[in-house]
User: Fold this.
Amino acid sequence: MTANNLNNYVGTLPEGCRLCEKGAKIVLFVTGICDKKCFYCPLSEKRKDRDIIWANERPVTVDEDIINEARRMNALGAGITGGDPGLKVDRTVSYIRMFKDIWPDFHIHMYTSSVLSIGTLKKMKKAGLDELRYHLLEERMWESIKDSVRLGIDTGIEIPALPGDEMRIIRIAERLESIGGNFLNLNELEFSERNLEHFKKRGYTLKSELSYAVKGSEESALKVMAACQDFNVHFCSSSFKDSIQLRNRLIRTAENVAKDFEVVSKDGLLLKGVITMENPDVRALDSLMADLKEEFEIPEDLMYLDRDKMRLETSIEVAKTLSKLNRKKGIKYMLVEEYPTFDRLETDVLPL
Ligand code: SF4
Assistant:
């Protein structure tokens, strides 16, 4: 068994997971629509049953949004998810084709909870789908899994590791291996707003106070891996998703988008100095920026007008210096730490 305390697997890690671990996969949420009713569904109210599209944290209205998001993070591939992408076949196929047209080596994996027909699988394969992960929910899905294997798509099953469910999962792994499937992915079960009541009814509890993971899920997965040493079984833990996948994606994005004056933290956040004014508008900010640059001889590329947040951004050093030399009514200086993601969520603001 290979492990780094957070990521456990036997055999070989699927290519989609390998790139995800590097933080190099854009997550393309193609729809919130799904006709299943899994008690463990982790989707938020904001997304569940809504036909909306997101590329990472960016809402998508046109294809360019997806391409720009992939460029921001210098993506090497995409994970297509939902809802159920299998219910939006044409849309999904067109995105797969779009990616492959721009980046022929892009690795694309996709999840589905649907029994995809051979015709649909062929369309997806032809568009360039590399890897398909079935969320196994019904017996008749096996025929589709076999078809996918026959067509030469890397085919796996991805399901949550329910506590105490190891014997059933071992049988699934054996059956998948016997038909030539490539891998079994087990996700650590996690509490979310939507599934909280269902989990409580089943007696599920938290693994620890520091995590949303369900106690007993990891144990199930470890038992499956111990019993399936000759197959490819991967356990994706809740802490692995947060501390490795997400962190690596943030670092990758931050390094790609950081302006010269921004510092990238070890967790992939952007640190910078910020200057705000009362009732800001573009003209007033532009004029303040020109005055500051001239009076304090600040190099051209060391200060920037952020029209989205209506403020000036600069280096930490410049903001600290100006906060001492240029205290004026209505002007405030601060140090800000924010995500490099599209929503640019601020995690810390320190007034100077
Ligand atoms: S198939 Fe997936 S999206 Fe649909 S209900 Fe189940 S967990 Fe939620």
About this structure: The chain is about 35% helix and 25% strand. The domain at 258-351 is CATH 3.30.70 (Alpha-Beta Plaits). The pocket of iron/sulfur cluster is lined by residues 34, 36-38, 41, 43, 83-84, 113, 135 (CB under 6 Å).
